[in-house]
Fold this sequence. Notes:
Layout lengths: L1 H18 L11 H5 L2 E14 L7 E11 L4 E12 L6 E14 L2 E13 L9 E14 L2 E11 L6 E17 L1
Antiparallel strand pairs: 1-2, 1-8, 2-3, 3-4, 4-5, 5-6, 6-7, 7-8
Amino acid sequence: MLxxxxxxxxxxxLIGIIISPAFSHAADLSPADYKNLTxxxxxxxxxxxxxxxNTHGPEGVLGYQVDSFFNKxxxxxxxxxxxxxxxxxxxxxxxGGLGLRYxxxxxxxxxxKFLVGSGGGGKVEGGGGFMFELLTxxxxxxxxxxxxxxxxxxLKFPTGKLETMTYTLGVSWFYEKIIL
Length: 180
């Protein structure tokens, strides 16, 4: 009996998530609210990050990152990555930080970010799990709003033994969202 109540709760919760956007609409905004609407730049990334040297040999993680801009160049970055190659089964990282992105040419951007977070799992000797990472590189616009990213970086777990250079390849896409 208890199991069926859990199932009903889960089903109702999922239905609520699915239909909740139907109840939020622009009619709730006053005319004054429309004057305060602004556009916010957003870049989303799918990345593959290669760890060149660590105690158990080379590894690679697959990840998702999102960059939400405060102004033309400064942004908040959030990242989540999990191991997909190597001998560190179960390893993952969640981090956040700040970044700068500058347009160099019509279709070429410079991008750099500093992330702080937590990670570990598998055979990684991450100590308490605290980590930081610095990434910098270029983004080349392939077609409108779609970019190919290449970055180099440095990852360190200060309380553990993992410290490595990183090489990142990715695809990103750009859009603007309306915020109040």
